[in-house]
Amino acid sequence: EIVAIIIYPFLMITLPHGIVLPFFRDWYTMWYLRPQFMRDVSLRSVAKDKEDESRWIGKADRGPSLQEGRDAAYQVIEFSVREPFHIIKGFIIGTGLCFFISPLLMGLVVLGICLDIFIMIKMRARLVLPISEMQDLEYSVKGYENEILDRKEGDTPVSYDVYSKEWDAYIVSIRKAELPRMIYQTVWRGGASQLIRISILLLVGWWVHTGQISIGHYFYLTTLAMIANDPFEIFLNFMWKLVTLREQLRRFGILCGI
Fold first, then answer.
1. How many distinct helices (H) and strands (E) make up the chain?
2. 11 pLDDT band (50/70/90 cuts)?
3. How far is Cα 47 from Cα 52, in angstroms, rounded to an integer?
4. Cα radius of gyration (the chain)
5. How confident is the model at residue 173 (pLDDT cuts 50, 70, 90)?
6. Which string of DSSP letters, residue by residue, matches 88-144?
7. Contact status, residue 213 vs residue 105, Cβ threshold 8 Å
């Protein structure tokens, strides 16, 4: 029974959806989507910048804005291409089956989702401004580096003291943004996730102990319960990605004329 529970889902789900389809998806991304996207947005940004330079403040950070923003935009696109399958799988395989097999088990999953959403809302409200400040200073540092390293003869050099002070401010901003993020992400989100996970394992383990289900169903139900959380985990991760990439996308939009 245990062998059947392990092998059958692998042949029906993991093999086609976890190996074959991801291979062709990654091949398409590598061969066409990423290089074509990078080329098109780079050419558009450079052409737009030449048309109207007056809409950009701070000439030195145009290069970093293009490079960072281009990567940030692609991350959003790649996330949107890669994750929908996991969301659909979570709803169909996880949520549906858990709901019909055990509403109590589904209730624990929903409780974990609600805790995760609450922590994410608090984290976003607390960190939006520190992250924006950190990214502004990061662009400023890179802009100064471009001016210092790529200046032409006759250009006024950037003061080393100004560059050094900008780095000091950038380091302070990193600490102000990353320390609260670590606390929210690792301690609060991680702690709540592990608490719900342990509760699910103990509940299903009790059913095995009392003879209500077999040990094979233990692995089956606990796996489904974890899959049921995938859509909401993916959604929250996407929202957080937008928060962290917000400044890059804003600058990139200005540069592209969006």
1. 12, 0
2. low
3. 9
4. 24
5. very high
6. HHIIIIIIIHHHHH-HHHHHHHHHHHHHHHHHHHHHHHHHHHHHHHHHHHHHHHHHH
7. no
Could you tell me the CA-to-CA distances from 195 to 48, 80, 111, 232 in Å, in that order?
51, 29, 11, 17
Token pair of 211, please? 């003879």
Residue holding tokens 């580096």?
145
Per-state percent for the chain, helix, strand, coil, to nearest 5: 90, 0, 10
Q: How far apart are CA 134 and CA 172, in angstroms?
A: 9
| Distance separating alpha carbons of residues 88 and 83, to the nearest angstrom | 9
Smallest CA-to-CA distance from 68 within 43, 42, 48, 44 is with 42
Task: Please say whether the beta carbons of 173 and 137 come within 8 A.
Answer: yes
Q: 124-134 burial, b if ≥16 CB within 10 A, otherwise e?
A: beebeebbbbb
Check whether 216 has a pLDDT greater than 70: no
Those residues whose C-beta lies under 8 Å from the C-beta of residue 153, and which sit 6 or more positions away, are none
Model confidence pLDDT, tens digit, residues 240-249: 777 778 777 8
- Put residue 145 in one of left, alpha, beta given phi > 0 → left and psi -120 to 50 → alpha: alpha
Which pair of structure tokens corresponds to residue 140? Answer: 């400023």
- What are the structure tokens assigned to 173, written together? 């901003």
